[in-house]
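Dear colleague,

Following up on yesterday's call, I've attached the two folding results inline so they're easy to grep. Please treat them as preliminary; we haven't cross-checked anything against experimental data yet. The first protein's sequence and structure tokens come first.
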Amino acid sequence: MVVNVVNDEFVRILGISIENFKNTHKGQIKLSSMNTNKLESDIIGIYGQNGSGKTSIITAISMIKKIISNKRLDEDVFKYMMVDELSTKIMVKFLVETKNNTYETEYIVLITKDKREDEYFPVIKKESLVYWDYGDGNKKRKKCLIEVDNNKNGLKPVYRYDQLKKVFGDENDLIVEKKLSYRTGKSFIFSSVLYGLIPNLPVEYEIIKALKRYARSNLFIVENEMLALSDANLMIPIVFRSYDRHEAGVIPIGLNKPKSISLQQFDAVKKSLNSSNKVIEKLIPGLKIELRMLNKHLDEEGIEVVDIELLSIRGNREIPIRYESDGIKKIVSIIHLLIGVYNYKVLTVAIDEIDSGIFEYLLGEIIEILSKGAKGQLIFTSHNLRPLEVLNNSNLVFTTSNSHNRFIKMKNVNSNNNIRDMYYRTLVLDGQEEKLYNNTSQIKIKRAFEKAGDLL
């Protein structure tokens, strides 16, 4: 995948809330320390016991990226809806800076099922985009850009519907596009047709334009499914972002056999690895990753491609990267994104289980460096508690055992408190507004092991 990068706009996620999503009835997180007057380190770590909703936030951000990028909802999106619930809702707040203005925006999407010929399909039942115009620096009253209810005709507010009818030319074309978006499980607000008409619409529609560019070019998600293929030695996802050529993307590199890529992709990945190696050799002394070109040939369409292989180099020793540890493959996969977060404010990166396979002390070093100097936004989940010792309480979110209030910030934390120690004490003794851990019993677990053994 290769997309164009736009650097003259700035978008950042301010917060996200989910309802009836996976195992969460309701949960809300403030993700950013951003405001319009001050840019601070913007790192958020999400912590909690297994199955308590950490990954739900990363998954929700991934879904929003797909929706805003005008991609079809995954057919298995039903698995994200809580059992016995008919729909799931996601709300995301963004800060959007364009050439003309600064806005705080809120996008809400309601996803449900549509039955056709005894089969269910995921559809967007409702969606809305509202904004607050900062204009002269002061936040003004809330305005609705577009609200779409696919159970009803037309759009809200009425004067927006009138604006769109004019640029579509024929009201029937507008109605057809709205219905087509619904039937294909896509967003109407972020549809390609509407995007193409934005130059003919009032200036506030530039919010849609900025969000679409952000989702395609500056928002990166690293989910477990992607890295599971690396752990299985099938492929490793290499992220690249070329600022001089204004391109970004992810290229999966095969691990068990050579991968064929275009010459353009080869150059992009090569440049990405050259940048990554500057940091990799400091994280793991003596290690360098090299992209080796094996041969050139024409593919089935007659386009020249190259077969490549990723190598791990330590001194004079070269081995295919598939023989390296899962931790090293994880670092190789994500390090270019972390370099981008450190250097560029336009980037948002969300990583599930950032600690997977990475040495605890090294993870703490990386997070501390980012927390002190990163210009972009990093959202991560982790089971490793080392980052609790290097991040401020404002940069941390904890899951609770209450599915109706799934995420909280720790209260009564002083500047000299060790948050890691506080978290351990809270797990045992409580002391926060919500219970953070469903207590387990060693005696009951021991008996369960014994009973399970009797069934062998």
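Below is the second protein, in the same order (sequence, then structure):
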Amino acid sequence: IALLTIPLLLKDKIGDIVKQTANDMLNAKVEFSDLDISLIRHFPQASISIEDLEIIGKDKFENDTLVSTKSIDIVVNLMSLFSDEGYEINHIIFDTPNINAIVLSDGKANWDIMKSDSTEVIEETEPEVVIEGEADTTSSPFKLQLKEFSIDNASIFYTDSSSNMAFAIEDLNLTLSGNMQDMRTDLKLKTTIEKLSAAIDGISYIKNASFSADINVDADLENNKYILKENVIALNAI
């Protein structure tokens, strides 16, 4: 009964907090139709779903939608919420996101939406990073343990009036997996693009090309070294 009722009691409050926090931090309008929390759907993982998210610009980009997505699903290991080892996010899924990136002739970009005062707050409240083996004299460090990240059926449009450049990506599917918390991990990236187009100064260099990549990387995150293993990248028939 608790697993069923607690999410229902908390979801409206958490939804209001998410909206308020996002709007306070961003120079943009953030809206979504629903936020759902479930402790049963992926038990023993907890799941959070945000429906119909939109980030809409202000000032010079009034009414321009920077990001819209059908849904964002986040699956969290329920037991990690009660542990001091960090929140273990097993999966983040973006369903049908649309990104419309714009650069005006004066160089102003519509994705530059972080408020300066919110940046200062983040810097002031940034948690101390505690290296394993050192004594923790403050509080438990926050650790993000992402296992998999995926994007389904995305569209990305980029228009740069300052350099007269534009490109478009349609029907993008991407999956990135690996233990991002480990100092060394095998990262696996798989992506496909049904239509890839690019133009500069009105000249089309690529139009509706297909692209795919299957990339495997031995990532030494501690020393910032990456070893490419067997990889396959294809552009049309190449």
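For the second protein, one point worth flagging: Residues 121-142 have pLDDT under 50 and may be disordered.

Best wishes,
A.L.
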